[in-house]
């Protein structure tokens, strides 16, 4: 929050009307934070799932720097940055404040709270003096609700996202409860036609790399989404009243345009082409199909409401004020326009009469009001309102009320940007990645026990366009005069991706009394080609790779048996699919699955100590049971020839995560996966080793408490606590052995999501497992991460 707050503070220019630090939207969010009770510093220091979630660093950060600038002067902000940057010991944010301001952050936070009370309480008092008009709350989902539209029968349709499951299109009938109709993408926009159905503009991945909006139609009868455009770049759209056409806002190259499409999404004509800097926010078509109303940003003028004549292609101004007007919508008879605006610093719902141009304020809220919908008889106003828990739907009766007529301040809502400074340019040259490849960071890397003292560094870098990406690790054992290290490289310019990993490490073999008997060296080489197919809600990837693992004795005590050098070389293909997601308010992946199938051949490369082929299917299913509760199921099967490197079950650690596109092959390569956890049983048991293997696991995962609190020094935090109970069963056998000898276990885990250094989230699991068969045992363990 200190980093992002500084950036948000720097972007803000109150005189020019730009930047989040001067916006009514950020004012709204912080005002409701103050009225609900400011978050304590030990919470703001941590990553948050509590509302307003990821906005907290920017929101609290920019207000804190504004407080410092007003009370202590801008020079102190510069000194805070310079003094922290000059300190070789990181994360000392408290001592940094003491040195520069003479007060620790805890004391400053109390002053900050008082400063915010003085800033925002008068706004609340003003609304109460005028008479608050908020309406009845219809939903209590909070977080993200909206945009909103409604049918003539009073049925409401809106998008809801509670950060515990995927965003969804919702329906709310009068007097009923919200119902999920279909899952949609975040930031979807809505337009309703009584016969054609709902028009959705929602983002999708185009050609694996671009993030474009496309149009979809939701059919009420079939309950299915029909995709109308592909890579269309249509950020929002509205039906023509006839249902035979669509008006859509197109965005390309930073320029907005209005396109006329047919009902199937085919482009028929360009109605208007904007210039650089002109941005259309939301649109609505008049009931007679002759005009379109939009919120339009123009450089030097800000956001205003304008009418667009669909025949002449001309714009005409409805408003020209210093405020932000948004979410315009025609009334049922087309004689007035509803919209949201921050005329007095708080977003409220207003209505402008087409004939007189008079503007009435329909709501008077302390939070904010957006996306107005007026009933056909104009007796009920429904809107999306904001409070300290997020956005919800509200309904306000208008009968018997006399809306106040307002006269907004006229003028431009944002000043023109200052003249661009003169920039010296040199000769145009072809791009060279080597100009920016040097490392920009490093971390210490060490491993110390009674036999070794490895000291080293870990670093990495990328070129400016992120085509070449690398990581390097080097450690030197000063006790034994030997080196260890690793190198990773990823080339990400074309499809497919290219990956490479190499490392060498050492392990010690000891006697039962602890004496060192030998040192064994390991070398790993991996190369991988990855072909992805990406979308917003799922991912396919095809992997082809080569792998070599080599072990050899590098130091042996006299009289101890010398093991032969061992090599495991193979080539493989794998297909991976993932649709599972872990949401901000969740405790586990939910609402989806991860599936991987692989085929490997140890005879494809010469020199391997193994031979034959192996095939694996790993299926993980995550079922959301409600709230944060999840049922996780895993089914795993593997088959191989008799000469392959055998599969093994046992232990508590499963180092087989789903392959990620940009991770190192050392972390989650889909190849040469031979060990899988079976809690309640030791690793390496012959009864659980073979060239064939089966495993089934079932976990019920449940929340306990979300704390979101941390210490200043040391920088440690606790995000949330949750638990799981599980049962699993597995078998492994060699060719010719019985295939029905399954071993089962049960147990429970207590999990803590901890935070290191204010931002690094680590999951610790304290578990108990009991194997129920003759080779089973009782295990109590502490593990990093989840079982699967």
Distance between the termini: 32 Å
The radius of gyration computed from the alpha-carbon positions, rounded to a whole number of angstroms, is: 31 Å
Mean pLDDT: 94
User: Which regions have little confidence, pLDDT < 50, spanning 5+ residues?
Assistant: none
Largest sheet, if any? Answer: 16 strands, antiparallel
Portion in strands? over 45%
Tell me what the structure shows.
- The chain is mainly β.
- The strands form 8 sheets. A 16-stranded antiparallel beta sheet has the order 26-27-28-29-30-31-32-33-34-35-36-40-41-42-43-44. Strands 18-19-20-21-25 form a 5-stranded antiparallel beta sheet, with no helix packed on it.
- Strand 6 (about 190-195) and strand 7 (about 195-205) form a beta hairpin.
- Helix 2 (about 25-35) packs across helix 7 and helix 5 crosses helix 6 (about 95-100).
- The radius of gyration is 31 Å and the shape is globular.
- It starts with a helix and ends with a strand.
- The model has no long low-confidence stretch (mean pLDDT about 95).
């Amino acid at each position: 929050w200190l980093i992002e707050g500084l950036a948000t503070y720097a972007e803000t220019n109150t005189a020019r009307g730009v930047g989040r630090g001067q916006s009514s939207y950020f004012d709204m969010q912080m005002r409701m934070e103050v009225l609900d009770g400011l978050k304590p510093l030990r919470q703001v220091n941590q990553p948050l799932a509590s509302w307003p979630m990821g906005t907290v660093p920017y929101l609290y950060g920019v207000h804190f720097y504004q407080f410092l600038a007003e009370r202590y002067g801008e020079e102190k902000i510069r000194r805070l940055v310079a003094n922290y940057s000059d300190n070789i010991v990181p994360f000392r944010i408290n001592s940094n404040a003491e040195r520069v301001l003479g007060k620790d952050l805890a004391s400053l936070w109390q002053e900050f709270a008082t400063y915010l009370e003085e800033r925002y309480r008068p706004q609340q008092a003003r609304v109460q003096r005028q008479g608050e008009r908020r309406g009845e709350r219809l939903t209590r989902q909070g977080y993200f609700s909206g945009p909103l539209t409604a049918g003539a029968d009073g049925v409401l349709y809106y998008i809801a996202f509670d950060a515990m499951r995927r965003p969804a299109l919702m329906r709310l009938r009068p007097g009923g409860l919200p119902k999920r109709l279909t899952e949609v993408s975040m930031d979807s926009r809505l337009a309703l036609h009584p016969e054609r159905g709902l028009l959705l503009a929602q983002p999708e991945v185009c050609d694996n790399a671009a993030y474009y909006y496309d149009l979809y139609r939701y059919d009420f009868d079939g309950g299915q989404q029909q995709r109308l455009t592909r890579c269309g770049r249509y950020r929002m759209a509205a039906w023509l009243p006839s249902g035979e056409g669509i008006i859509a806002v197109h965005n390309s190259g930073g320029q907005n345009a209005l396109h006329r499409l047919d009902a199937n999404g085919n482009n028929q004509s360009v109605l208007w082409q904007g210039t650089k800097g002109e941005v259309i926010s939301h649109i609505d078509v008049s009931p007679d199909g002759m005009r379109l109303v939009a919120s339009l940003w123009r450089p030097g003028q800000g956001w205003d409401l304008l009418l667009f004549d669909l025949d002449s292609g001309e714009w005409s101004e409805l408003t020209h004020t210093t405020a932000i007007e948004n979410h315009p919508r025609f009334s049922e008879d087309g004689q007035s326009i509803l919209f949201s605006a921050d005329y007095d610093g708080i977003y409220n719902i207003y209505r402008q009469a087409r004939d007189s141009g008079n503007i009435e304020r329909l709501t008077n809220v302390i939070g904010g009001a957006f996306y107005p919908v007026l009933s056909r008889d104009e007796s009920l106003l429904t809107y999306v309102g904001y409070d300290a828990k997020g956005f919800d739907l509200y309904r306000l009766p208008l009968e018997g009320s006399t809306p106040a007529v307002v006269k907004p301040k006229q003028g431009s809502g944002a000043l023109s940007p200052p003249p661009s400074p003169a920039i010296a340019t040199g000769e145009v040259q072809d791009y060279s990645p080597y100009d920016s490849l040097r490392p920009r960071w490093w971390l210490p890397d060490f491993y110390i026990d009674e036999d070794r003292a490895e000291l080293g560094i870990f670093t990495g870098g990328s070129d400016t366009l992120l085509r070449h990406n690398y990581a390097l690790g080097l450690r030197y054992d000063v006790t034994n005069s030997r080196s260890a290290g690793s190198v990773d490289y990823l080339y990400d310019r074309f499809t497919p991706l290219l990956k490479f990993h190499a490392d060498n490490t050492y392990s010690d073999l000891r006697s039962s009394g602890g004496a060192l008997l030998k040192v064994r060296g390991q070398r790993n080489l991996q190369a991988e080609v990855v072909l992805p197919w990406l979308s917003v809600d799922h991912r396919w990837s095809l992997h082809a790779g080569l792998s070599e693992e080599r072990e050899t004795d590098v130091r042996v005590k006299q009289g101890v048996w010398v093991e032969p050098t061992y090599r495991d070389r193979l080539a493989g293909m794998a297909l991976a699919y993932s649709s599972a997601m872990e949401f901000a308010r969740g405790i586990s992946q939910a609402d989806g699955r991860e599936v991987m199938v692989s085929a490997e051949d140890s005879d494809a490369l010469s020199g391997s100590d193994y031979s034959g082929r192996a095939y694996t299917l790993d299926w993980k299913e995550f079922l959301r049971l409600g709230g944060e509760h999840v049922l996780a199921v895993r089914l795993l099967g593997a088959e191989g020839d008799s000469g392959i490197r055998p599969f093994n079950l046992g232990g508590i650690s499963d180092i087989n995560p789903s392959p990620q596109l940009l991770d190192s092959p050392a972390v989650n390569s889909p190849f040469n996966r031979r060990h899988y956890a079976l809690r309640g049983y030791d690793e390496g048991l012959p009864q659980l080793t073979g060239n064939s293997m089966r495993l089934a696991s079932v976990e019920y995962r449940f929340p306990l408490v979300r704390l979101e609190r941390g210490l200043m020094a040391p920088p440690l935090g606790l995000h949330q606590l949750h638990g799981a109970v599980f049962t699993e069963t597995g078998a492994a056998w060699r060719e010719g052995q019985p295939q029905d000898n399954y071993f089962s276990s049960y147990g429970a885990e207590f999990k803590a999501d901890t935070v290191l250094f204010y931002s690094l989230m680590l999951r610790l699991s304290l578990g108990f497992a009991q194997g129920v068969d003759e080779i089973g045992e009782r295990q109590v363990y502490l593990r990093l991460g989840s079982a699967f």
